[in-house]
Design goal:
Strand order of the largest sheet: 2-3
InterPro entries: Na/Glc_symporter_sf (IPR038377), Na/solute_symporter (IPR001734), SLC5sbd_SMCT1 (IPR041992), Sodium:Solute_Symporter_SSF (IPR051163)
Radius of gyration: 24 Å
Catalytic activity: acetate(out) + 2 Na(+)(out) = acetate(in) + 2 Na(+)(in); 5-oxo-L-proline(out) + 2 Na(+)(out) = 5-oxo-L-proline(in) + 2 Na(+)(in); propanoate(out) + 2 Na(+)(out) = propanoate(in) + 2 Na(+)(in); butanoate(out) + 2 Na(+)(out) = butanoate(in) + 2 Na(+)(in)
Distance between the termini: 70 Å
Strand content: under 5%
Keywords: Cell membrane, Glycoprotein, Ion transport, Membrane, Sodium, Sodium transport, Symport, Transmembrane, Transmembrane helix, Transport
CATH class of one domain: Mainly Alpha
GO molecular function: organic acid:sodium symporter activity
Largest sheet: 2 strands, antiparallel
Structural class: mainly alpha
CATH architecture of one domain: Up-down Bundle
CATH topology of one domain: Sodium/glucose cotransporter
Protein name: Sodium-coupled monocarboxylate transporter 1
Shape: globular
Order of helices and strands: HHHHHHHEHHHHHHHHHHHHHHHHHEE
Number of helices: 24
Number of strands: 3
Amino acid sequence: ARAGGMGRFSVWDYVVFAAMLLVSAAIGIYYAFAGGGQKTSKDFLMGGRSMSALPVALSLTASFMSAVTVLGTPAEIYRYGAIFCIFAITYALVVLCSAEIFLPVFYRLGITSTYEYLELRFNKYLRLCGTVLFIIQTASKPQSNSLTLYTGIVIYAPALALNQVTGFDLWGAVVATGVVCTFYCTLGGLKAVVWTDVFQVGIMVAGFSSVIIRAVVVQEGIGHIVNDSYHGGRLNFWDFNPNPLQRHTFWTIVIGGTFTWTGIYGVNQSQVQRYIACKSRFHAKMSLYINLVGLWAILVCATLCGLSLYSIYKECDPWSAKQVSALDQLMPYLVLDIFKDFPGMPGLFVASAYSGTLSTVSSSINALAAVTVEDLVRPHFRSLSEKKLSWISMGMSLFYGGVCIAMAALASLMGALLQAALSIFGMVGGPLLGLFALGILCSFANGIGAFVGLVTGFVVSLWVGIGSQIYPPLPERTLPLPLSTDGCNISISSNLTTSTANPLTTIFSTQAPERPVLADRWYSLSYLYFSTLGTLITIVVGMIISLLTGGLKQNTDRKFLLTKEDFLSNFSRSKSDTKVVVLSWKTSTNAAEGTDNPAFSHIEMDVASDKNKVNGLHI
């Protein structure tokens, strides 16, 4: 159902889109051969630990911003108002926690996979738990939280939204993005991932700004847009309702959001892998802080797009008027509407949505390859040479690229984009964050406590998460703002009733189930609190069980914990900025017991004496 005046995709739009894919592929080819190519698995997975802060920062921003952000956030603001902006505070807190709590420990240990830490600090079984959870989460992932599952949604969602509005070929787009992504990940490794991300951030910002500038021109000034939003109740920044059942309030966003996103920035492999690949700890921290500016810029862009959407469609909402079938089709609809006389501009917007997809998927593929090689292959096949490992890493990239395309096909059978993705992610991300926090902040936490905590947190999160998917919260909990169709001059066909049902509920149950008491108390918890719940339960249970099982007796090496020196060393840039020694694995005879870990170089071994300490390392 398309109004007569809408644009369609022209040749130029396809040209712009193809150009974006080609440049991304070219970067991959360049890094496959630049500087002698990828000689070792470290080169391939970690960029040889020689990255500097700026590209890494842009790369972190890019993979955070998937097409779900480009299409979903403006629609979210259109529907629920600009309270989403409170995430600006959340991002600041997240970056602070990641840079000051998790980064110092991971960087000092010089690990490739964050889950190596779990073995060093607890035992190899917990490392395996972490690795497996991560792989499930990612291959299925929403918004670089859970990866494999996530990537499926990330590839498919934008393809679907763009296809329904612009007639852009659905499976052509899915396969093209999947193949190009796999191609440059496999050839160029982490360096290619980071530099394509830098290029893609540029495209995303260009896409967003073109929409904002054109909307301002159409509406004759930004004043009109702000004014309309104000009168439409879209500028609802402050809502201090403490009720945890309310979907977005100041508290759910600041507290819940901080836990959810720290799970991604602080301990998620696809993010950590990049800032650990920086050439010094100073660069690693800077990359996080510069990335914060990027996150803010993108939030502002998305908010302005959302408000422009409202301002342009305040009289006639295309969603209620059945012009689009889902909220995330509003942005493509707007683009075709305001750019109908500008060939190539809709193509730029589509390219920006797909840049989001590419950057998120490529970071997932690279992270999955790293985790598989470091946590599953290397410990069991000690005899492999570096050259062979780098070939295996490439093979894994290829394999996971294929898995992601397959997942996209699966995602075509699932719905409910933003929320389902984030909540599945929250379910896994929360307990994992709790596990790392236990290891880094509690010297007395032991393996038993950590394991019981992880399982408890995981079970509780899944229980709430699945419950909330089966019994979605009532509208008074989510507070959608009013939309109007008064100004529409299209005949609305009467046989279509407006359904806002969550597609996942239709899978579970056909008729509306009786809502149990739990549904409105427990399952209606704001989706941002799923992660918080998982994290806190994991930490509390972990601490109690550790104390009961003699956690105080064990002697934990200080280098696995966050120490005073980590914090103080921020202020002295002199010697503390020494480059991390990249640890070489030598197969030692007694590696099997896991006590003498060959991953530590002599520098970090002697922690007993406090003389001549720099940055908490004995030098």
